[in-house]
Each structure stands twice: as C-alpha cells, then as structure tokens.
C-alpha cells in the first residue's frame, strides 16, 4: 500500500495540471476578446443613445416627466442627458433634484436596454486599430477550431472530476496515512484511486495530453493581423457566432428555437450533439436545428434561405455515425448533387458515394455494402431496391417541396423510403405557413397523425398558432430572428454537372481554342443548361422569401440568356431590371439600381461584373449570383461588395455557379493556389481597391494553359488559332 497508489495519484495530478493549463489558456484568450470588445461596444451604445430623443424617457416613466425645459437647454437626446450628469441638469431652470433623479434613472434604464441589444459590426472595408484588435483576438479562438473547443470542454470536465478524487485519494499515498484514516476514508480513498487510474488510462488512450498541449500552442500563438483579417473575410459567420457567445448577446432563445412550444423545445434541449465526426462548428440555432431533427426523428426543416440547412443536415448524419449508424441517404435535385457531395466531404469525416449516372446501380450496391452517405437524385431513387426497415438510419430530402404532389412517382418513392428510415429530414426554404395543402402532403410522409389534424384554416389564425399545431414536425427560423450581428456574408460554390447539350457546346469551344466561349458554354443551349436551371431555382427561392437578387456575369450575351429564361417563368415571376453594361451611361445605371431598390417585394437585377462591380451600391439585394468564376479575384470581391456593405439590412448569400470537370474547375483550382495572405494583400492594396484590373494574374498565359490542358483532356485537335483571355 502506498507506492502504486502514489504513482496513480501523481498521474492524476499531472493530468489535472495539463487540464488546468489549457483551460487557463482558453480563459485568457476569451478575456482578450472581451477586453477588445468592451470599448467598441461602449461606442455603439453611446452612438445609439445619441440618436434616441429625450422624449423617449416619457415612455419609461409612463409620461410622468416634464422634459420641455431639458430639451430647450440643448439636451435633446438620451445620450446628451447622460453626459450632462446631475450637476448640469440641476442648473436648468425649473428642474429640481427629484426630476433630475427621475430623468437619470429613466436614462439608465434605457441605456441598459440598449446595452443588451447593441451589436458591434466589424467593417472589413474600414479596419481600424480597435476592430483589428478584436478580429485578432477572435482569430486565436476560431483557429483553434472544433478540436480546440472539444479539448477545453474535456479539460473543464476533468478539472471538476479530478479535484474531489485527488483530495480523497491522498490518504492512500502512504501506509501511515491509511492507518490513521478511518474505515470510511480508507474506502473512499481506494475508490478514488481506482477512478483516478481509470481516468488516467482513458486520457492516455485518447491522447488527451497531446490534445491539451496542441490546443495550448494554438491558443498561445501570436495572431498575425493580415491572416486574421483574411480569415475573417472567408468565414465571418464563425467569428460573429463566437462573438455573440462570448458577449452573451446571443439571439433571442425563443427565436433560435423557432418559437416552439416549451414541451417540444425542452425535449430538444435535452439531447446532446456528438460532433466527433464533424469538421465544422455550428451556430447556436444550427445546433438546435440538428438536435430538433434527432429528437423528433422525422421533421421538416424550413429555415429561411442562407441559414445553413445543409450544415444542420450534415450535423445530424455525423451525430448518428458517431453513435454507430452505418448508412444514410441524401436525395436532392441533380443541380445540387455535386454540391452535396463536396459539402459532406469538407464538413464531416463521413464516406460519400454518388448514386447517379449510368453506373448508379453498381454504386448503390457498393454503398449498401460499405455504408456511408449515398447522394442521389429524385429520379434515380425510383430505380433502387426498396430498403429493409431500419437498414438506412436517416433520409435527407433537399428541396422537399419538389415532392408536394402525392401522386407523382418521385413523391411515392420518397414516401416509401421515409417510412422505412428511423430518421427523415425534409429541407425546404420555401415558407409553408400559407400553403397548408402542400405542407400537409409533406407532413403525411413523416407524421400522418399531425397531417390529418391540420386543417385548411389553421394558417389563417396566425403564424404562432400554425407553428404550435405543427411543432412536432416543423422548424423554421428567419434571418432577422437569429442573426444578431450586422449582415454576414455566406459564400456558396454551386457545382453543377453539365448536361449533354452543355457538354457538346463546351467541346466545340475547346476544339476552337476559344477560351471565352469555353467560359460561357454552359449557357449556349439555354433549354438544357444545368447552370441556368440552378440559377432559376436560386432566384425563385429568394423570391419566395421576399429577397432581391443581383446576377453578375462577365458576358453580355449570358445576361441576355438569363433575362429571357427569367422572363419565361410561369406568371413572369419577380420583375427583372437591366442588364447594366458598359454601354449604359453612369447616370442611367444608377437610375436602374434605384428602380430595382424601390420595387416592393422580390426583384432581379442583371449586371455585367466589370461595369457594375465598382461605384454602385446594391444593398437592396441580399442574394448575389455569379454566373461563372472570374479570372481576377478582385473582380468578384468588388462585385459582391456592392451588396455586402454598410446599409445592408440582411445577411448576403453569394452563389457562384461552377461546372465540374472543365474550365471552371481549372480556373478555381489555379486561383486557389495563391495563399490567403496574398489574396488579402491584393484586395487591400490601394491600387487594387481603385480598379479590379490592378492585380495581374497573367490572363493570357492562364487562358492558353487552360485551353491546351482541356484539349488534351478531351482529346480534341484545335481547329484554329487559340483565343486569348480577351
């Protein structure tokens, strides 16, 4: 008794020391964020109080204050009243001490309300020392990533558990101590030693010492200013999410939970999400959405466009995989199949199999045997063998409103699979409150009892009543309810597989050696264009949510094709403005933008990226579509900045349409070889801000290389002299 126990206690003490070290490093990193945030937040509060008329103090005191003399003295805002203080207020004729006390108390209550709701905006276009300090402090924590967060959580759990165990086990570290201890203490000491041994062995198996050490290194690494700003631009949502968490100014909990009834919300809160198979952090409302899908098992996730439904679905699959489930199926339109595949690969550790194309039956057999996530289309699903009950752990259906017609073959196939899977997640950004008939058809596949209880008039009594009726199966959040920061920027690469007609047009352009024709070949046959189909879907979903869209292309003829395609929609759809091109005089361009902004409800603006990317403010648009990748990154950056800027009242979603296997993929790959720091430097240089043509990426050489590589890949001989980048 003694030596072995001493070694166990020593191991436990070392583990505790490592845990306290990483927890302390994390605590200091969090405090650095709070210290950097404090002056910025105080400035925002002061600025907002400076805009509130002093008459608003009447609201706080139910009209008991007489403020005429205060206003006449020049103290016309709540901010000025607080700055003046009691002495200045007492000098105003007719204002006594009691009134002064009431005024300052009312002003303090308003200031508290503003303090709770004020949000700091980080302006990437106008960085200054204080915002730079905040971005750098946040960068440390963001760079530590989900692995760092998990390490800190484990460390804090160990600290809580090890303290009492080490205290109880100290009696077992020597024979004399054990002899002098009473029977009860000896028993507790031996039990504590056994638990310490178990914790130490588990920590060694899981590599916790190494994990703690790496996390400490990450948290102590001095941030680089340029790297921090570049990273913030790429994933600002993660920075704002972390900022809301640290500041305690998270979105309203009821809004983040979709205003669900308490009995449903409480069930969801009780489920803990396993993130060990996931490679991306979730925002609070996204975490709740994933837990809702798991807790309720078969649901419709109807979050507004731009809130990350795909990430929530991946979180659900990753959780189930971590629990030992083997097979999952995603069903989606063909236009987003490649996008789903890439998102799953990038954001999780799950194996992905594409169940599409001529070899889909072989791929299906392979997926069925080896497991992972199968990704298929509505059309292909009908040709696969019916699954056995519980053979597939979860079915995810994207753009689920596509199966609203119960008589359609695709709807029947989806209903069959949904009935055989323990979990089913239907996703749609189309609001369902006023489409009770369609909504009931979707819900019938998931929860027939809820569908039957839902009457045609339920939506007419108001959104709150509707959501209560469908709470067991339906969750929808809106952007303004759950995003507390000023607008974020969410960029999505929409990878599309070219149709047969697209491929034919592309081959002709490659054979001709015409680089510019290759770039726009995806629009050469509009009736069969995969990109055009996805563009229509994006515009229609934006319109369903009352959002305005701006569509950019380098090519005038592509914009003409887009205009014709949008005009051919049933009922005409949202009004289309433009195109804005280089031939449109500057004054006329601004009038077109003003008319677009003044349109009530959804609208679409078409613009040549080199003509509209500079000098025009398009903050009326909260959805941006780039028809093709640009050769110069600055061209895209400045075009997006027309919508994502001060004055924008909604988060901006950017969709870049890309075709797989050809010029788009090569362009993107070549441009991504440049490091983040170089891109950030180019964007931030004074010359680059002045004109998108300032960064020379050797356009002609780039075009020549891509043309030659594509001719070699496709095995076609050049019909004439190669075209340059133009």
TrEMBL record:
<feature type="domain" description="Helicase C-terminal">
    <location>
        <begin position="534"/>
        <end position="703"/>
    </location>
</feature>
<dbReference type="InterPro" id="IPR038718">
    <property type="entry name" value="SNF2-like_sf"/>
</dbReference>
<feature type="domain" description="Helicase ATP-binding">
    <location>
        <begin position="290"/>
        <end position="449"/>
    </location>
</feature>
<keyword id="KW-0347">Helicase</keyword>
<dbReference type="InterPro" id="IPR001650">
    <property type="entry name" value="Helicase_C-like"/>
</dbReference>
<keyword id="KW-0378">Hydrolase</keyword>
<dbReference type="InterPro" id="IPR049730">
    <property type="entry name" value="SNF2/RAD54-like_C"/>
</dbReference>
<protein>
    <submittedName>
        <fullName>DEAD/DEAH box helicase</fullName>
    </submittedName>
</protein>
<dbReference type="Pfam" id="PF00176">
    <property type="entry name" value="SNF2-rel_dom"/>
</dbReference>
<dbReference type="InterPro" id="IPR014001">
    <property type="entry name" value="Helicase_ATP-bd"/>
</dbReference>
<keyword id="KW-0067">ATP-binding</keyword>
<keyword id="KW-0547">Nucleotide-binding</keyword>
<dbReference type="Pfam" id="PF00271">
    <property type="entry name" value="Helicase_C"/>
</dbReference>
<dbReference type="InterPro" id="IPR000330">
    <property type="entry name" value="SNF2_N"/>
</dbReference>
<dbReference type="InterPro" id="IPR027417">
    <property type="entry name" value="P-loop_NTPase"/>
</dbReference>
<dbReference type="GO" id="GO:0004386">
    <property type="term" value="F:helicase activity"/>
</dbReference>
